[in-house]
Structures are given as structure tokens and as C-alpha cells.
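Q: Here's a chain of 262 amino acids. Please give me its 3D structure as C-alpha cells.
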Amino acid sequence: MNATLSLFSEAPRTPPPVPLLMVSSREIAKVTEKRHDHVVRDIQTMLEAIHSPELGNDDSKEVVVRKDYRGFISEILLSKLLVMTLLTGYRPDLRYKMIVRLEELERNQHKLSIVDLTDPVATALALAEQYQKFAAEYQMRKKREEEIAVLEKLKAVLTPKAQIADRIAEANGLHTMIEAAKILQTGRTRLFVLLRMKRIFMSDGLPYQRYIELGYFVVKEKTYQQNGSEHLYSQPFVTGKGLTWLARLIDDHEGSFPGEEN
């Protein structure tokens, strides 16, 4: 009995089989700095060119296709062999970066495979190490996504302002209030409301003398015919200098005053 127990205790342990390394198409896109949908397209083209029937069935160990709730491909997992095959069509610098990443993934996988799973302490330490690594990568990816979101919001804010600046730079001479409102991408009524609220325009729709002297506006006398008689009226015009000044004024008071968009 004791001999039997001794025999079993001294028998060498069979190492657990190393799982097949699978790499996500999203990982490939990240490392090679390519769009994910382009990587998926490249993978599909490669699989079609290989003409390997076993790659298309659900039992394949070389490729796994994951889909979202709509049935669209969310990512594709490839074996190392298929990743290397895919990389043959990529630029040398991109191919090199991905090969370096493959070696890193293999080292991490090897660390887990050599852990004695019968030793709870060793298993816990190995899992903790991997968790910290994955958590750090997740935080870096999350931070990058947040930075991209901030840049997109900033772009959405700055693009209209840049377009207004370009229009102002191209605008020469004098402009009616309707023309000025179009250049400034606002409504004529809204613009008049702001000018009256800031006591730049009087109630009759003309600018105060101070703003004329500053070179922001010009007032011209016009005539019109009514019932056979000629009548005189004053019409304000915005100068190029006035357009730049109004753009800053609108930007400073955006959303802080009422008015129609027309």
C-alpha cells in the first residue's frame, strides 16, 4: 500500500496543454494603427484566398467569428498561424510591430501555462499579475478613448467658428444686416435682439454713433417710392472690422439671450 502511494507521489506531473494563442482583430487594428473594419476586410479576403473549408465552420480552432446582437461581426479571433499569414500583406514596419506583440502575448500565455495550478498561492499571484496588466491596458485604452471624445467635441465647437472666420476673411466692403447674419451663421432677428440688448442699436434699428465712429457700422441714406412720392430712410451696414467684432460678441453671449433664428 505504501509502495503504491510512493509510486504515485513520485510520478512526474504531466504539464497541462498550452491553449492555442488567439489574437483579436481589434488587437491587430490597435497595433497596426488600422481601422478595425479594414482589418476585418483583410481577414475575410485572406480566408477566401486560403480556401480552407475547415476555417468556415464553428468547430474551427484557427478562427473564431464573434457577432453582435444585430448579426454584424464585432471581432474575429485568429490563431498565430493565421495572424502571420495576414501580416504578409502588411507593410514591414506594421508587420514588425505585430510580431513583437505576438511574442509578448505568447510570453504572457507561457507564464500562465507553467503555473502549478495545484498551488493556490502561485495561481493567485499569476492571476493577480495578469489582472494588473490587463487593468493597466484597459485604463490606458479608456484614457485614450476619453481624449479622442474630448478632441471630437472640441472639433465640433471650433469647426463652425473657423468657417465663420474664413467667411469674414473673404468678406470685403459693406454688408447689410441680412448678409452679416448669414456670414456669422445666425439669424437676422436674433442678431438685432442682441444688438438692442447690448445697447449697440437703438430701437429704430440703427447703431449708436459711438459704434459708427469705432468703424463697426456705416449708415447710408436710401430712398423708396410710395404713392408717387419719394421717401428717405436710413440703412445700417456692417464693415469688415464690424464682422470680426460681432463674431466675438456673439461667441461671448451664445445661448444667453432670446431671439428667433430667422
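Q: Can you summarize the key feature?
A: Residues 3-12 have pLDDT under 50 and may be disordered.
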